Amino acid sequence: MKRIVSAVLLAAASLVFAASGFAAPDPKGSASPGPGFTAGKPRVEVTFVLDSTGSMGGLIEGAKQKIWSIANAIISRTPTPEVRIGIVTYRDRGDEYVTRRFDLTEDIDSVYRNLQSITADGGGDDPESVNQALHEAVTDLAWTPGAKVLKIIFLVGDYPPHMDYPDDVKYPVTAREAVRRGIIIDTVQCGDVAETTPVWKEIARMADGSFVALAQSGNMTAMTTPYDEEIARMSAEISSTVITYGDAKKQEESRSKVAKAAGAPSTVAADRAAYNLASGGKAIQGTGDLVEDLREGRVDLGLLPLKQLPLELQGMSPAQRKEYVASHQARRDALNARLAELSEKRADYALKERRAAAGSDAFDTKVSQIISTQAARVR
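Predicted structure:
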């Protein structure tokens, strides 16, 4: 199965990452592994600072569909990096909110769920609270310290910042702070507002990043393949092997991930399945699945309090519980072996389609290309 998974990853990655690589962190370096990370593995942390005012509806809806494909583009490197993604969405003073933050996490299921909660509304007075959002992204999120981590912010919006708010930390100060912390800021301008272009270019220049100008919608289109529907069905079967555990909140969170995945379009479900396969054959990301957490050694089944077990396990003997979990793991392994074969075919098909559309000015394509180029800086 490992051979099949490797082939899937190589096929999916070869187009957008052919020219760059990651360097593994020096185990003697000063960076701590950080939450959820394994010492010695390459790491990539990406935060999207997204304008969520009314004019950004097209891009936000596209990002909801493409977050898994972006995550796949990152994780498909060799050696496989560990990935964390965060979101800061912003509007302006007087709107429903100024900023909303979703901290960096390796749980991409949660990232997907958080994106679903973002809608485009408000705005109307042109400049937005870009300064506040960018400053919070640099200073308030849980970035892993040290130079051996690729840390990138993508500032995505169509209008420039308010420079007339006296209590704001202005973007030149934030850009310098980003450089000090080893964070690259790339800027993506959506639309053609002339006043935005010089500011976005200056931010990128000051923070060692790149500037990209795209159509207002971000030009994202779903790539369908003949394998999507079957992969989506198989992904749903794999989700049925999840055994939730923990307190009521934790179990509900795990069930919510399964439900969100079940409601996703087949193309999104197929991208998610590929990511789960690449990250070890998981059914959901993060913790809360007893099958995966036992396999990873995060929990001892014999030490779990009865009330933290799902109802179907509470009435079983210890031996029956062990057998029950093992049967779920065996079924998942068998499904993942079949999924790997389908995913390899899907990756080959998608690669040919992407080659035919080379040079596409789409948000997800540009993000992948920029990360690919900037990965070479981490030595």
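Summary: The chain is about 45% helix and 10% strand.
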